[in-house]
Amino acid sequence: MKCEKCPNAATLHITEILGENHIEEVHLCEVCAGKYLSEDKPPVAKSSVPHEELEESELGQTTCELCGLKFLDFRNTGRLGCPHDYEVFREELVQLLENIHGETRHCGKVPRRSRSGGRNQNEIIRLRKQLDAAVSQEHYEEAARLRDRIRRLEQS
Fold this sequence. Notes:
Blueprint: E1 12-17, E2 23-28, H1 30-38, H2 51-58, H3 71-77, H4 85-88, H5 90-101, H6 117-136, H7 140-155
Antiparallel strand pairs: 1-2
Helix pairs in contact: 6-7
């Protein structure tokens, strides 16, 4: 790929996020990249409150009453103080997990050599819970169907 500013080969590829839906990619050689990075660029529109003050004012408000940990402290250290923090910081943690993993539910992986034994085991556990619920509600036809399905899974 060629440099966008001169005929040399591009060795640096810079991606700038200028706004929510505005991304700019620049492909430059080392010399042009040095000039590009040293240029003064107009600041991207931000809120009038500096980012650190915003974090301290909004996120710093939430504190666990058991261990005294503030969410801002968690963000700085990456460690929660007690199990109760999961409930206290639930909203912030869900948002954080969605940003990092794209999902808030752990799907897990099954080892290749297990031949879906783990999947069958999870399915059997789920079906047994349904079977217990069907029996307690006296839905015997449903319970018989679940029992048969469990037996098939156990034999495979």
